[in-house]
Every structure is written in structure tokens, then in C-alpha cells.
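Tryptophan--tRNA ligase
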Amino acid sequence: MIADMQALTDNARDPEKIRHSLIQVALDYLAVGIDPQKSTILVQSQIPALPELTQHYSNLVTVSRLNRNPTVKTEIKQKNFGQSVPVGFAMYPISQAADITAFKATTVPVGDDQEPMLEQTREIVRSFNSIYKENILVEPEGYFPPKGMGRIPGLDGNAKMSKSLGNAIYLSDDADTIQKKVMSMYTDPNHIHVQDPGQVAGNTVFTYLDIFDPDKQKVADLKAEYQHGGLGDVKIKKYLNDVLQAELKPIRDRRHQYESDIAGVYDILKAGSAHANEVANQTLKEVRDAIGINYFG
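Predicted C-alpha cells:
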């Protein structure tokens, strides 16, 4: 799913940004290997059942419960909303519940920071099925990445890598841009001289190596050398750059191929959204039937 409606919750005054980002996200999905013949790629705003499901679910969730969601609280702080939190943004955990349940997902891939969202979805499912005495909605389970890989830190070492926070490597970045970003990455601020022992814990460069370098023994050796002293930040960053370039080049090449046929990408989104509508509309019908508001059949 490309969650353009969710993106509008804090970008309502800049819809052009969302329109531009839509195709960029689609290109990223296709570039990393998501096959539209196997996985439906849909646009959230093109599924009318989703906002109606959100409305029905919102009647089952209290404001205080929304305010207790730790992920929402963190994001509100990051975005500097203060007391001016858009209602749509505060409600997006409910919207996510609609996104999941509309398609009766049984397993949802999520990062660690999204676990509270998934739990809120499960609460909504249990409440709905209990209140309306119908076992319509599916209570999903989370599929979490290996420990330590659920959240990639930003280049600055803070929070998670995010376009909105400006601390990310983009799949569209060329080789030179990636190298510049890697060379600016946060390491150990106390590792001033090459011969100084360095800290590996919290060192963003080593976090990335743990995630992206398939040669785990090499990473272990580099960590030992860095902690002992004698391995400089420049050298380790150059090594990380080589690892990332090897990982990202085939992705970038596929992205360029899709960029040459934007009309074809829109066709993929249109077809995926059409298929998603069929599934979501059936779920909405079942929800309306359970509530008793399908007055006209």
C-alpha cells in the first residue's frame, strides 16, 4: 500500500508533495523487487471503503486510548505539533486498522516501533467482533525483523532513517550522493585519533554493517580492531560505502528501468487498486451487515 491519505494528515497544505511522492514510492517498491504479479500494490486514497471502515472503528476507540499510543506520542513530538495536532494525524492508528482489516491480513510485517499500532488494531478487531457478535474481522499477528534490524537509525544516529527527518539514503540516490552521505555519518564522537579505542555500541556505521554486510566475520574483525584502536572512521566508512554501493546498484538500475515508463507504473497502481477495491468492498459489506446499516440490501 502507498498510504497517501495518511501522508496528508500532516501535509494537507502541500498536496503537491504527496502527488510527487506517490510515484517515487511506487518506483521504490518496484525497484526493490516487489512483483505486482504476486503482491498487490495499491493507493490508499483510491479505496473508498477504507475511510468508512475508519469511521466505524473510531466509534470503538476512546480519545484517551489514542493518546496513550507511544508511537503516536513520539511522532507528535518529532513533528513539533505541540497542542496543534491534526485530528486526522491523531486518528491514524485507527486508519491503519482499516488498512489491515479491509484485506483480512493474517500477518503484518512491521518494525518494532509499529508494534503499538498493531496491538491497537487487534483491540479494535476484538471489540468489533465482540460487540456485533460476528467473527468478521481477522486479528492479525506481527512479523518482526531480526533483533536489532527493526529500525534503521538515521545517518545522524538519531531516531530512525526517515525522509521526513532528512537523515536518509534514498533508493534514487546516485553513487556519489551515497558516498557523501556515508562519509558524513555519525560514529563515536570520542574516537578522535586512529589509535584511540572506539565504541561500537551506538555507532551508526557498525549498525549499518551489521544489517547490510553479508560477511559477518569481517564485521566482527572490524569491530574488534576498532575497539582495540588502530582503525580510523574514514577507513570504516569507505568500507561501508563499498558494501552499500554493491547492495544498492541493482536496485538503482531497476528503478531507472521503471522510470523510463511512468505510464506503465501508473497502470500497475491502477490495476492493484482495482483488485484491492473488490476485496475491501466485500469486507465493508460484511461490516455494514454486522452493524445493521445495510438498509437497502
